[in-house]
Amino acid sequence: ETGVTQSPTHLIKTRGQQVTLRCSSQSGHNTVSWYQQALGQGPQFIFQYYREEENGRGNFPPRFSGLQFPNYSSELNVNALELDDSALYLCASSLAPRRGETQYFGPGTRLLVL
Amino acid sequence: GESVGLHLPTLSVQEGDNSIINCAYSNSASDYFIWYKQESGKGPQFIIDIRSNMDKRQGQRVTVLLNKTVKHLSLQIAATQPGDSAVYFCAENNGANNLFFGTGTRLTVIP
After folding, report:
1. Chain A residues lying within 8 Å of B32, measured CB to CB
2. CA distance B26 to chain A (A)
3. CB B13 within 8 Å of CB B19
């Protein structure tokens, strides 16, 4: 176990709805990254938060947004859900946003959009 | 952007044999790579990493080889065990510690 937890484990939404996913980072980690993993694919980087600020973003539209709290936990918000948003959403925490800092992943939240 | 990919989507090996999983990358400026293992229903788990100033790095039962000339890396698992059955990803780590994953290779260990 990595110490990174995510909630909920599974979620079903309908197209157009909004969803919030949560992540608690490993103790001492101030950096949280979010990834989307479609079925049969590798995880795709969404964005990273460091000390409550967005610190890098992948190729995802603005309807994907996030927050990081003073305790370094994080939320991923997705507005106007589309069918293609169905995926496993992973968060990973690390000690710092530096190359070489190991990222520890949580178990993920599986989102199904109908 | 970075591009990381794998040669084979699936690999089956007999228990006790060695496994070799390959990965190609396209960005010649890439200088840090990580291998992750993902078991069913779980998030990726760090296995081993390697920087571009190294050609080889060994861990417990695993070895990663990096060939910068052909932009290729491989993960070797010695004496493969049933618990090694999983999907294996190579990932490139950029300067801001963002990971860019390949498609993955599913390793199946045959008892």
Report:
1. 99-100
2. 16
3. yes
Contact A103 B41 (CB under 8 A): no
Q: How far apart are CA B1 and CA B100, in angstroms?
A: 9
Q: What are phi and psi of A61, to 5 degrees?
A: -70, 165
The pair of three-digit structure tokens given for residue A64, joined into one six-digit string: 């994907």
For A51-78, how does the pLDDT look when each residue is reduced to its tens digit (9 = 90+)? 999 999 999 999 999 999 999 999 999 9
Cis peptide before A8 (omega within 30 of 0): yes
**CA dihedral (B98, B100, B104, B107) positive or negative:** negative
Q: Hey, are the CB atoms on B43 and A106 less than 8 Å from each other?
A: yes
| Residue entry with tokens 């060695």 | B18
At B5 the pLDDT is 52
Structural tokens at position A58: 């992948």
Helix (H, G, I), strand (E, B) or coil at B83: helix
Q: Does B43 contact A101 at a Cβ distance shorter than 8 Å?
A: no
